[in-house]
Amino acid sequence: MVPTTPPTDTDFDVVIIGAGISGIGAAYHLKTKRPSTSFAILEGRSALGGTWDLFRYPGIRSDSDMPSFGFGFKPWTHRQSIADAHVILDYLNEAVDENGIRAHIRYNAKVDGADFDSATGRWTIRTTDAETGDPITYTARFIYSGTGYYNYEAGYTPEFPGRDTFRGQVIHPQHWPDDLDYTGKKVVVIGSGATAVTLIPAMAAQAAHVTMLQRSPSYVLSLPGEDVIANTMNKLVGPDKAYRIIRRKNIALNRGIFKASKRAPKVVRKLLMADVKRRLPKGYDVDTHFNPSYDPWDQRLCMVPNGDLFTAISSGKASVVTDHIDAFTETGIALTSGQHLDADIIVTATGLDIMPFGGIDLSVDGEQVDVSDTVVYKAMMLSGVPNFVFAIGYTNIAWTLKVDLICTHMMRLLAHMDEHGMDVVTPVLTDSTMERTPLLDMSSGYVQRRIGTFPKAGTAGPWTVKMAYEADIERLEHGPVADPALKFESTRLETAAVAS
């Protein structure tokens, strides 16, 4: 990309939104592959790290193995394979400092909206300083959105009858108080997803008792907290050589589990149930509490390192209740079965709220973009929206594997535009009859609640979305950049024609 104006403090070739793992990955690609391209990272919070800095609840950790989840350019060398949040945050800070990225981050820059001007081929990005409330405007040729799909302002909590009558504390994990003392307290955690299965063993060590209250069970898979093979190879051949091998091994294993779940769900279910039964006391009611009604990988599997959830249950420090809530009471929760759960603290691990692109308002030439009416191109751009790339990672394997491929393809796209003297690229969907499908094909409640607000996927050509790493390598890393669905333009040529 050839800049048309000298870079200034608020004018860049590329603006990256979000200093989480997706934004840091994009910054690395720009820094190393396009050193003459100016860029800034606009981060709405006062610290980098995204999810890994925002969430502070006990036990927060990765739900993918870190050799897969980590950056392709920076080996994961910590002994933990399923890593705690603070370890991941250290890793991200190291990546930022080792690659000279920190100076590019603008903190407290909450992006409110962005408008693309076709005449100049540039974005105007409106931000608010989160500390002072002052508006600041940035301009850029390209926008890369690394916001993910969480609503960082609030999680999802359903309306519970009688909530105001409860005399204890009600806490959502996304807003965990720093000073919460649950020592010797009776805790009820509402939910059965990744957050719940993380919280329960972490709190059980200090609480009097922790109860996981779920309407229906999730699949829970125990994995080693440390990868013995990885740690041994790091010592024998060094992290750089070992990382490539370990990463391929883990990707193949994870993809194998997913494919097996889709091809032979009954077999995989049986294997998962057998592992749970092996880890719990004899006679435990596994069918009620750990045998979901859906097939494996219709929703994400919940990963627990070293079976810590099952250890907490087996010790008697934690228990699982599968029932429906009738109402909160002064002293706990009344269930439809007639049972009452006493509680001092209730944790509503009831899910995330999701939103596209951090809720940023997009417009082109003054006309607002209805994101839900767009179709994604190669799962990284939006139909009818110029010079805009976004990162949404995989739902069935490590998030960052997809992000890295998107960044790779964006670098190839920018190089192609440089080579041909173009500075604007827009995906154009000409087939108005193409069937549209949800961007994320998962039955999870948090997805189903808000997926209608997201862009759609198509059913043919580059408009399809496949959560398949090997297919994306072919499409994004090795496939051609030029495509009939892409419209390339040069504002420089148009300006020169007008001037003449």
Automatic annotation (TrEMBL):
The keyword Cytoplasm does not apply. SUPFAM superfamilies: FAD/NAD(P)-binding domain. The keyword Transit peptide does not apply. GO terms for molecular function: monooxygenase activity. Its cofactor is FAD. Pfam families: Pyr_redox_3 (PF13738). Keywords: FAD, Flavoprotein, Monooxygenase, NADP, Oxidoreductase. This is NAD(P)/FAD-dependent oxidoreductase. It comes from Gordonia aquimaris.
